[in-house]
Design brief:
The structure holds 2 protein chains of 2 kinds.
Chain A lengths: L20 H11 L4 E7 L5 H13 L4 E5 L10 H12 L6 H13 L5 E4 L2 H7 L1 H10 L4 E3 L9 H9 L3 E3 L1 E2 L5 H10 L4 E4 L15 H10 L5 E4 L5 H10 L2 E4 L1 H5 L8 H20 L13
Parallel strand pairs in A: 1-2, 1-9, 2-3, 3-4, 4-5, 6-7, 7-8, 8-9
Chain B lengths: L3 H16 L9 E2 L2 E5 L5 H15 L2 H15 L5 E3 L1 H4 L10 E6 L9 H15 L3 E6 L3 H13 L2 E7 H6 L1 H9 L3 E5 L6 H15 L3 E3 L10 H24 L5 E5 L4 H7 L9 E9 L10 H4 L1 E5 L1 E6 L24 H9 L2 E7 H15 L5 H19 L6 E6 L7 H7 L24
Parallel strand pairs in B: 4-14, 5-6, 5-8, 6-7, 9-10, 9-14, 10-13
Antiparallel strand pairs in B: 1-2, 2-12, 3-4, 11-12
Classes of the chains: A alpha/beta, B alpha/beta.
Chain lengths: 298, 443
């Protein structure tokens, strides 16, 4: 297995040892013998105030890295759950610049311990201005951006801006990616590479794609230091399964779903979100029995 | 220092030297536009498609089969029809302007769409895929895709916004008759753009067996270039036909522009004829100032949608704005990247035509020439009327206008009937004394 030597930096170290805030966080967890839990919520759902509450509640219940979704009118990588939430958030008037508030809130709430990545379809960043967005996100305490519809081939401006402002850039790989593209994407990414477990859009699935484990291995062999898996994970058991071989487990729709039902009181929805998060957090903690504190990848 | 026209000519010839023939520019970029802004999961399929399509265009077995189908099935070459009675309204009879229509409406399935669909469907067979998916707005591309799928024995699923399935119920039935599954899209604005989102989601999940038979010159590379290649036959035929009939090149070419495939198809043969002025007419809807339109060049700005960077209707945050047009085929918030390139290069001019102008031109062609055009194509006809008036005002006479009549209007009879109030008191109502067009809700 290629990749890092496993000499992880302490999480509270001032300068990122990996050159990446998210990378440092994942390495620290690796030293504890487990994968990171990365939790996604769209900002502004059901409204900005309550959505800040939800993000912080998710953090308190045990996510290690936050993924802040920017609602977009045309989310082609998202399934029905996230589409519905995004549509409602936009109808509620959420603005692109609101994401900065969320990054600030997470940074303040956790003293910078939990990195906040923005997940954004590319046109929203383009319209804001690639460099201004990177500058403002970094100033707000954000860690970087996940770009589901931007491939490194099209990302020259973003690569320059993220370098200039010290942000992570998370590109995706998929089971259909060729070895050549895995290399290209691994080299262009900072923080981690996002491996789509299956060919498809976001949403809970009975089984996480069986090609996910192979894709993680292939992506590491192509030079990636950290590979996290998303698409389809919804339960603690699935998180435990994926956490066995991946450096991080990314969960979105299963968390969003706990907030969707308008007829349930908000406090009960937050409880459901925290319970779901705790179950997933437990999953990543029991994924590699006996690996704790060894400080190296098994 | 040379004077302005000479400098313009120098700039233009420099552009030709740098770019080669404009008609042959290859993707992924047309100037600053185009690209591949899609999930990584699709890149392998796009690469395969690009490789296969380039190989196919160089393979006489492929081009021969496509030419045979066009001859025996599509009915190509489509005729060029001069329309003198219509031309009398084009800047006044005394100005002596001549108008020629390229009759893509006479193709099998009733529009230019079949050119691209047959080309891609043959490619699907070559690639060994068994299933095609497509988006459709008014249903023209969906019907053409369902037709090719029936002919070539492919499974076919067509995504159509729920609102459009209701507006175009007959085309839904037509697609189902042809064996296609029609899936109403119930998310977002429930129109063409949302149908494309849903088709892209299907494609990501099923890309190993499925080809996305995209219907216009938009989308990620190689679609904008490939779809242009399958439609360039329109302009190539038209150029030959008008040289024979008018004895010279046209002064101007007019086409409607939604995604822009019919326009690019006819423009392409004239791109390197500097004297021929090219006009694309977009849907001005209820007027660009009303905010209810699909005039990307008047009311939009460059941005990314559905895999390509191009002019786009978007708000300050980059969220896609809803478009509006009486014609479903022009009702799309972005436009093919090659058009954005031609726009910025100054090689083609793009102007909005309102719903009202288009419907007047629609009726005029019906009355003067016995041809019922698609409402989409009526935007090009309205544009030609405007060009004729402008020429006359500027003292130019005897202009030759070539208009791409991209589709027939059978599908639009119900819309036109309501617009002109022809459906009330059927049989006694004098269509000449129309009661004005119907109310907003009826459109």
């Amino acid at each position: 297995m290629s990749g890092t030597t496993g000499t992880a930096a302490p999480a509270d170290m001032a300068a990122p040892a990996t050159g990446s805030r998210t990378g440092d966080r994942i390495e620290a967890l690796r030293a504890e013998g487990r994968a990171a839990l990365i939790g996604y919520l769209p900002i502004g759902f059901p409204d900005v105030e309550r959505s800040v509450e939800a993000v912080l509640a998710m953090v308190d219940a045990g996510v290690d890295v936050v993924e802040l979704g920017m609602p977009y009118t045309d989310p082609v990588m998202d399934g029905p759950v996230i589409q519905r939430a995004a549509e409602a958030a936009l109808a509620g008037g959420v603005r692109a610049r609101d994401v900065l508030r969320f990054a600030e809130a997470v940074a303040e709430h956790t003293g910078g311990r939990v990195p906040a990545l923005v997940m954004s379809y590319w046109n929203l960043v383009l319209r804001y201005g690639v460099d201004p967005f990177a500058r403002d996100l970094a100033a707000a305490g954000g860690a970087g951006v996940i770009t589901p519809d931007l491939i490194p081939d099209e990302g020259a401006d973003w690569i320059a801006a993220s370098d200039a402002h010290g942000l992570d850039r998370v590109f995706l790989v998929a089971p259909s990616s060729t070895t050549e593209r895995l290399r290209l994407t691994a080299a262009a990414s900072r923080g981690f590479v996002y491996a789509a477990s299956t060919m498809g859009v976001t949403g809970a699935r009975e089984q996480v794609g069986e090609r996910a484990e192979q894709l993680v291995a292939d992506t590491r062999a192509a030079g990636a230091e950290r590979v996290c898996v998303g698409l389809g994970v919804s339960t603690g058991d699935q998180a435990a399964e994926v956490g066995r071989y991946a450096d991080g487990v990314i969960v979105g729709s299963a968390l969003v779903r706990t907030l969707l039902d308008d007829d349930t009181p908000w406090a009960a929805r937050l409880d459901a979100l925290q319970a779901r998060t705790a179950d997933l957090a437990d999953g990543v903690r029991r994924a590699r029995p006996g690996a704790a504190s060894r400080g190296t990848r098994s | 220092m040379p004077d302005q026209p000479v400098r313009d000519a120098l700039t233009e010839s420099l552009a030709h030297q740098v770019l080669g023939r404009l008609a042959d520019v290859q993707g992924p970029y047309f100037g600053d536009f185009g690209g591949r802004f899609v999930p990584e999961a699709l890149i392998a399929a796009l690469d395969e498609l690009e490789t296969e399509y380039r190989k196919a265009l160089g393979d006489p077995a492929f081009t021969g089969e496509l030419a045979r189908l066009h001859r025996e099935y599509t009915g190509r070459p489509s005729p060029l029809t001069e329309v003198p009675r219509f031309a009398e309204h084009c800047g006044g009879a005394e100005a002596g302007h001549r108008v020629f229509l390229k009759r893509e409406d006479l193709n099998h399935t009733g529009s230019h769409k079949i050119n691209n669909v047959l080309g891609q469907a043959l490619l699907v067979k070559r690639m060994g895929k068994t299933r095609v998916i497509a988006e459709t707005g008014a249903g023209q591309h969906g019907v053409a895709t369902a037709t090719a799928a029936a002919l070539l024995d492919l499974e076919c699923v067509v995504y159509m916004g729920e609102e459009d399935t209701q507006r175009q119920a007959l085309n839904v039935a037509r697609m189902r008759l042809l064996g296609a599954e029609v899936v109403p899209v119930t998310i977002g604005a429930r129109t063409l753009k949302d149908a494309i989102n849903e088709a892209l989601r299907d494609w990501v999940a099923n890309v190993e067996t499925t080809h996305y038979l995209l219907g216009t010159v938009t989308g990620p590379h190689p679609f904008p270039e490939m779809v242009r290649e399958f439609h360039r036959i329109i302009g190539e035929e038209a150029r030959e036909q008008i040289l024979e009939r008018a004895g010279r090149l046209p002064d101007a070419v007019a086409a409607c522009v939604g995604g822009g495939s019919n326009a690019l198809g006819i423009f392409n043969a004239f791109l390197d004829d500097d004297a021929v002025v090219l006009y694309g007419f977009e849907a001005g809807g209820e007027g660009v100032d009303s905010g209810r339109h699909a005039a990307r060049f008047s009311g939009g700005a460059p941005g990314v949608l559905h895999g390509a960077r191009s002019y786009l209707l978007q708000d300050d945050d980059g969220q896609t704005l809803p478009s509006h047009s009486v014609s479903a085929g022009l009702d799309y918030p972005s436009v093919g990247p090659a058009h954005s390139w031609l726009h910025d290069l100054g090689r083609a001019a793009y102007e909005p035509v309102t719903d009202d102008e288009a419907m007047e031109a629609f009726r005029l062609l019906c009355r003067t020439e016995g041809i019922i055009p698609a409402i989409e194509s009526a935007h090009a006809l309205a544009g030609a009327l405007r060009l004729g008036r402008r020429a006359t005002q500027e003292g130019r006479t005897g202009q030759v206008f070539l208009v791409n009549l991209s589709g027939r209007g059978d599908k639009d009879v119900a819309t036109a009937g309501r617009w002109f109030g022809l459906l009330d008191d059927a049989g006694t109502h004098d269509a000449g004394q129309d009661a004005g067009h119907a109310t907003e809700g009826d459109r």
